Give the backbone structure.
Amino acid sequence: MPVLLLITLLVFVLLHAAPGDPASMLLGQENTAADLEQARRRWGLDQPILVQYFKFAAAAATGDLGKSFRFSRPVKEVIAERLPATCELAFFSILIALTLAIPLGVWSGARPNSWIDNVGTSFGLFGISMPNFWLGIMLILVCAGSFHILPSGGRSTYGVAGAPQTGFYFLDSLLDGNWAALKDAMLHVLLPALALGANMVGILMRVTRSSVLDADTEEYVITARAKGLGDRAVLWRHVFSNALIPIVTVAGLELGTLLSGSIIVETVFAWPGIGSLLITGVTSRDYPLVTGVVMMYTVAFVVINLIIDALYAVIDPRIRY
Amino acid sequence: MSAKKLLVLSVLAVFAGAAAKPTDASAQTRVTIGVTETMETYNPYGDSVSLLYGIWCQVMGCLGTYDFNKSEYVGMLAEKWEVKDPNNWIFHLRKDIKWHDGSPLTADDVVHSFNRVRNDPQSKQGQNIAPIASASVVDKYTVRFTTKQPTAPLPEYIFDRLIITNRAIYEKYGAETADRKYPIGAGPYKFKELVPGQRFVITKNIDYPGVKQLKQAPDEIVYRVMREDEQRVTALLNGEIQIAQFIPPHLQKRVESDPKTKATAVDSVEIMFLAMQPKPPFDKKEVRQAVCHAIDRDRIINTVLQGLATRLDGPIGPGQYAYDPNLKPKYDYNPEKSKKLLAQAGYPNGVDVELETPVGRYTLDKQINEVITQMLNAAGFRAKLLTPEWATLWSNVQAGKVPFYYMGRGSIVDPSVALSQYFETGGSPRIGFSNPKFDKLLATERQTFDPAKRKKVLSEAMSLLTEEAPACFMWRHKMIYGMAKNIDYKPTPSGRMFGEDMRVLK
């Protein structure tokens, strides 16, 4: 709670300190000074900043994050509408990242300086170095523009999915038994998930490789080999399981980076998630919306860290809270 | 078969036959348009952007619209209108227009809509009715608008912008439920779906007078949000959309070189200008005129903009109301003359100026201003280019804090409103220009209801403005639309996109 309060206060102050206000951004260019003043009065922007903050904090304590100036709807409703899109994108980014990074990292670590290691390292460097917005545009141009094998953006093709139930298109299509919608959703999420997950692939691959290299030299590994265990069993049962702690730590940290990276990727791919919502909020100085989204990110980070901490206890039985 | 192999085969089966082309449900004809504005609110008064005015006008209805082909305002829900006296306009509604639920559209709905624009807490369209003191019902199909002052350009304010909504539904359900669950309009297209941040879908209303005959107009239009240029163009080439709005010049060739697509350019009604506040050094007319002579507009248009702009020699261009091709002076490119003017103004050794431009707000804005800065430096100025973030620049401009900046003013059909806003004393702090003679001319044109006489007064005002040069009027960009070859559509300069103007060819 103190963290949330501090973050919201900081965001509030920074937003108000930035030049511009919602009235000047959201009214049409034909607006007059009188229109601006009226809008500011209506939205409570004519009051002292501390008064505005305390009103916001008091309402937020009851779960009311206020009404978005831009969208004319409750901030909670706007965020709830967009959150499933970001969650789906994040989920598939992580899935792709873990699926690619961990096997690559393990094989690279198990066979240092081999061709597998060189390929894996190159892949990892590519993922770390490539800005995700550039990668996103390249994927659009190649996969959609040149080869026409995937859609260029958006979350779904109009007319394929049924009425939304949960907002999670994959779940909704499974609940409906609509396989066309499921396929459509998978095709749409692939490119943005690749663009977003590439950076995480690079970092996780490198961390996995280092952890495996470290674990491989431990005495229990040498003992396992001496006892006659095969390479595969040694690698996955002993080396990998003991290399997991640093991998999980970095994965947890990278999840936070992934959430912030989604801001750019969602804009490039017209993905209607929280990231593109935040961009819209910041550029239109929509104070309630930006504050609400940042609060949501803060809560997400805290929850992710809790989950990571809990995972430690699962991975390493020696850790008990 | 192992579990792993089964999983791989299942995933492959789902992707089998994957195609980027839509496999969507059938509509007789559907046109999907990639647009750059985001669509977020169900409230027709909750946004003030050109695209949404166009969509809501089609769905809910507007009193009228500007017909660029005829160069005049034409009625939509209004059959005709008259100026009873300088402060009273009477609008006669069409009797054959019905709400989509079959009930008649009446003057009550128009007055209700006016009141909603004024009083709805979410309304961002108050400026559209700023000159109107009140709206009242004369009879079932007649509305009176009483203006605060004589306002000859009243149609510029309310046509295409005053969205007419249903009073009975509003009173029965309240604003929020009415807008979200009962978006019943009276326009040539019906509301089908709005997914905030993703798409707005409308379907043809064959009960609207004249629409049944438009067999080739699309039965369904999907406006899809696609803000990234590369994505929008790729979607067009991929067949995901049939019209792509606002193709940047450097991507035009990609669209034209594809056998399935074409590019169409149209002059926008947005004027681009360099504004100069009358503070040192721009308090001297000679310095302002020196800026105008320093810039080789033709060269910028032909090179940076690849020919995709039309030069302005005054505040407005061809097709805009009261355009006069004979305005003087004309600011030819003449850096030597700029230096002489600077010397006359007391700056024989040049003068320091800071030019501010947005980035990514207008076509190639930063690149254009990099060239302008060089041209200014070659003409005796010591110019520095600043590129603040748009929200920062715009709020500073509105507060009158930016002495020299590059900007556009859109939606200009009748220039009266824009000229008043930027150049009339007290219009806005954006420039801070003040000239009593110009003020008098604008006041006169607003009270002149005879079109020929009004155009003459406007022309005189614009001539004065060109001479005084509080802004250097640069050009109007050509808006490029990419389209599938089977789409016959001439985009409007205003950026409004009406389904009735489109034809889907076999």
Chain B touches chain A through 62 residues (CB under 8 Å). The mean pLDDT of chain B is 93.
